[in-house]
Design goal:
Layout (H helix, E strand, L loop, with lengths): L4 H16 L7 H5 L9 H16 L2 E3 L8 H10 L1 H14 L3 H19 L4 E4 L2 E4 H23 L15 H17 L5 E5 L3 E5 L13 E4 L1 H8 L5 H6 L3 E4 L13
Parallel strand pairs: 4-6
Antiparallel strand pairs: 1-2, 2-3, 4-5, 6-7
Amino acid sequence: RRLDADDVVPLLADSVDAVGAVLPSLTPADLGRSSVLPGWSVRDLVAHLVVVADSVRHLEALPAHAGVLSLSEYLAGYAARAERITGLTHDAAAELPDLPAASDERWDDALSRLRSLQGTDKVLARRGAARLGDFAATRVIEMVVHADDLARSLDDGVAEGRAVAPLPHAAPRLVARVLLDVLATRHPGQAVEVRVPLVAAVQCLPGPRHTRGTPGNVVECDQQTWTRLATGRLTWDDAVHGGQVTASGQRADLSGALPLL
């Protein structure tokens, strides 16, 4: 699906505001806590937001005839760079004394850069060339996923009001829809229908094609569960055994296709 930067950039800005609202309230003890991501502290999570902002600040406009990666291809580059991303995150956590202020400052610059590029169709980013709307969507993915990481990392014994403010409803919905599209792109076929109510449904995986009536192989879960599955925050087996996913049919098994990121 074609993503319009004029729609995605304001959504990113609202998501940044929602996450940024909680950062000044974090105490040194909060920042020193272990996060839900293995090997990352809460401070690392906040530092990663600075790293994500920096990736926006260095965008360059490309001519209209330039070739670009699809959104699925761009996101596929995450896995190969995971170690480098972790290193940059740990470095930022160690080097920036006032993380909330640094995050605000870098994101102000990043959003200004994105707005200055609106009207540009294609940009050069760290992982290659992409359409501006697609690149902005990858930043929304970062904010939605890490807002969830941060909220889960802080929810044990944290006073009321310290959790991350709710993101605009359209942000997690966009992320879930994008990740469904990535699933269908990377694992083409019509053997299994994956449904996320109020978001979208896609068909994927090779096998017998469904033509009429109720599909023979159906996977269904809510929006948050799907995003956690697709980004490796939740395993397929845990989701199925925990009742967070319903899977009907002999081929309704996404364990070999997940996570996507």
